[in-house]
């Protein structure tokens, strides 16, 4: 039974750790399906996390923090969209610039406001998205196997977590079952054909960029207003890049993206669980090696198990309207 309890703990932790990856991965999927490569997910996540924590600290409202975090990432996404769509700039360079500016700016502004090295004050419980107990979670807790699964894996998560899991099938439905999704995917494959049909390539790509901003903003707000209760510099810790790796691993498809992010979340949870683990005959595993485990396994999975991943044909290519 101890092994079962330990497994439940790891799986529950993995779900929580996977949430920002799921949201950022879906954000990148929307952007890249329209033909806009978004390397800047890491910087946008930091921006959303800082804005969300800062406004939640000032107002005492988690919802105000959520709106501020999402609004800030929409603005940054529109800047990237303007550079990529209207100015036809190199999308990799634009995304990298966003990462660098966000990394430094959030720490600078945070330190100027609170003087704690870029860290925001600890949020009160009322200014956070707290865990939600679903009906009968407590009464069913003593039921063997099913009780702990329902209490710790299905119940007991915050609103953003439930939203993240709902957004994956919603993304699938919109992309594959609606006219808007069909047009968006067509823009990422053959924008000239979409333009010839009288549909605005520019409007569709800007729409995808805004959706990307909303989703990655939710990922950032989750980090600071739901998971950690504060913002600190570099708190995204490479999650934006892992989300991009998950997107490639899933071959730009929503449901495989969800599964891949969960896998990476469970690997991260397992690495935390293994800290201090002693290998017979070798000794305690170094903390640095354990912390590097999710990233090493990410590289191994991408290198050995993904096969050939083909991105949307127009991905990263600015569209020039023929006259």
Characterise this structure.
This protein has 323 residues and is mainly α. The protein has one domain: Orthogonal Bundle (ABC transporter involved in vitamin B12 uptake, BtuC), CATH 1.10.3470. 68% of the residues lie in helices and 1% in strands. It contains twelve helices and two strands. The protein has helices at residues 2-33, 41-59, 62-86, 91-114, 146-154, 159-177, 179-189, 191-196, 201-227, 239-249, 254-273, 287-304, and strands at 278-279, 283-284. The chain has a two-stranded antiparallel sheet with strand order 1-2. A hairpin with a 3-residue loop joins strand 1 (278-279) and strand 2. Helix 1 crosses helix 10, helix 2 crosses helix 9 (201-227) and helix 2 (41-59) crosses helix 10. The longest helix has 32 residues, at 2-33. It is globular, with a radius of gyration of 21 Å. The model has no long low-confidence stretch (mean pLDDT 87).
Number of distinct beta strands: 2
General form: globular
Secondary structure class reads mainly alpha
The number of domains is 1
With strands numbered from the N-terminus, the spatial order across the biggest sheet is 1-2
Q: What is the top-level CATH class?
A: Mainly Alpha
Number of helices: 12
How large is the share of residues in beta strands? under 5%
Spans of at least 5 consecutive residues with low confidence: none
CATH architectural name: Orthogonal Bundle
- Describe the biggest sheet? 2 strands, antiparallel
Helical residue percent?
A: 55-70%
Tell me the Rg in angstroms: 21 Å
What is the residue-mean pLDDT, rounded to a whole number? 87
């Amino acid at each position: 039974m101890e092994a079962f309890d330990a497994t439940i703990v790891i799986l529950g932790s993995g779900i929580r750790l996977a949430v920002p990856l799921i949201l950022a991965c879906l954000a990148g999927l929307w952007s890249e399906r329209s033909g806009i490569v978004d390397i800047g997910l890491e910087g946008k996540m930091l921006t959303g996390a800082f804005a969300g924590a800062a406004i939640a600290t000032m107002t005492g409202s988690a919802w105000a923090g959520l709106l501020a975090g999402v609004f800030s990432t929409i603005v940054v996404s529109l800047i990237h969209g303007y550079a990529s769509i209207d100015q036809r700039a190199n999308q990799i360079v634009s995304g990298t610039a966003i990462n660098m500016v966000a990394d430094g700016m959030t720490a600078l502004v945070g330190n100027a406001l609170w003087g704690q090295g870029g860290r925001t004050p600890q949020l009160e419980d009322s200014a956070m998205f707290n865990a939600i107990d679903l009906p009968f979670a407590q009464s069913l807790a003593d039921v063997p196997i099913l009780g702990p699964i329902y209490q710790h894996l299905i119940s007991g998560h915050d609103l953003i977590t439930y939203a993240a899991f709902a957004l994956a099938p919603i993304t699938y439905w919109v992309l594959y079952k609606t006219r808007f999704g069909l047009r968006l995917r067509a823009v990422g494959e053959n924008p000239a054909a979409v333009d010839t049909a009288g549909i605005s390539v520019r409007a569709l790509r800007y729409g995808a960029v805004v959706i990307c901003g909303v989703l990655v903003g939710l990922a950032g707000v989750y980090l600071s207003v739901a998971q950690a209760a504060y913002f600190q510099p570099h708190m995204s810790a490479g999650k934006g890049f892992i989300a991009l790796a998950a997107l490639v691993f899933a071959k730009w498809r929503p449901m495989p993206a969800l599964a891949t992010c969960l896998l990476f979340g469970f690997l991260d949870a397992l690495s935390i669980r293994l800290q201090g683990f002693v290998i017979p005959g070798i000794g305690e595993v170094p903390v640095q090696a354990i912390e590097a485990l999710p990233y090493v396994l990410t590289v191994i999975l991408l290198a050995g198990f993904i096969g050939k991943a083909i991105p949307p044909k127009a991905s990263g290519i600015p569209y020039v309207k023929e006259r």
